[in-house]
Amino acid sequence: DGMNTYRKFNKIICVSNTVKSSFINLYGESPNLTVIHNIIDSSNIKIKSQEGLNDINKEEFTVIAIGRLVKQKGFDRLLKVHERLIKEGIKHKLLILGDGIEKNNLLNYISSNKLQNSVDMLDYQSNPYKYLTKADLYICSSLVEGYSTVVAEALVLGIPVITTECSGMIDLLGDSEFGLITDNSVESLYDGLKEMIMNKELYNHYKQKAEQRGVIFSVENKIKEYEGLF
After folding, report:
1. What is the DSSP secondary structure assignment for residue 133, as one 8-state letter?
2. Could you tell me if 46 and 157 are in contact, meaning their C-beta atoms sit under 8 angstroms apart?
3. Of the candidates 157, 140, 81, the residue with the CA atom closest to the CA atom of residue 113
4. pLDDT tens, 173-197?
5. Which three-class secondary structure state does DSSP give residue 66?
6. Backbone phi, psi, residue 101, to 5°
7. Nearest alpha carbon to residue 28 among 40, 17, 38, 20
């Protein structure tokens, strides 16, 4: 069975504690299990973020989302949340970076609901960091995740984060200590995003926390963890 196969390995590396828990639920406990988060090249991210960019209108609060345009990333429900806030008069810009099979569906939704003035969809960007660093807030609307590299990258750049509750987020953000984790639903994501836009005290709190958390993602620390395996 699966566990007999896994027992042949000296170590089994999980990318988050949630993944480890899921593994245990499926196969049972194993002394071979350990958790090491993905390596983030924080120095390179900071360098790339300094590349010039004039595409973002800083007169508006800008929310950015980055990822493959597939169902599990929840961009469809993010657009619904955005549309609802815009209709309530809560002005903000939504910037979506990525490509994938849901692209046309998302573009059709934007067009059908007349969101062209408040949503910009860009294709995959080889340097997303120059956009990320100029945004006010990073949002993750995923239904499921393993470990969100982009959330870690946002923290490296000191960008506040709001995310649905899915695998790896507690590892990255604690229990909403370093970023706001909402329930994994449209309604909770709506409530959370509205609060982050409207409540300046809360926003500034998470901006400070993002800057504080970002320092842990150094390559040196992660390399030491991997070296410890051998």
Report:
1. T
2. yes
3. 81
4. 999 999 999 999 999 999 999 999 9
5. strand
6. -70, -15
7. 20
Q: Please, where are the H alpha helices in the chain?
A: 2-6, 17-27, 42-49, 75-87, 103-112, 129-132, 149-156, 169-173, 186-198, 200-214, 219-229
Write out pLDDT tens, residues 115-142. Answer: 999 999 999 999 999 999 999 999 999 9
Give CA–CA dist 34/192, Å, rounded.
32
Residue with tokens 């593994």: 23
Three-state secondary-structure class, residue 215 = coil
At residue 221 the predicted structure's pLDDT band, cuts being 50, 70 and 90, is low
Residue 214's closest CA among 142, 151, 130? 151
How many CB atoms sit inside 10 A of residue 129's CB? Answer: 22
Inter-residue contact 174 to 29 (CB < 8 Å): no
Cβ atoms of residues 149 and 123 within 8 Å: no
Residue with tokens 């993750």: 140
Distance CA 85, CA 76 (A): 15
CA distances to 6, 22, 86 from 28, rounded to whole Å, are: 11, 9, 47
The residues, any chain, with a CB within 8 Å of residue 52's CB and separated by 6 or more, are 130
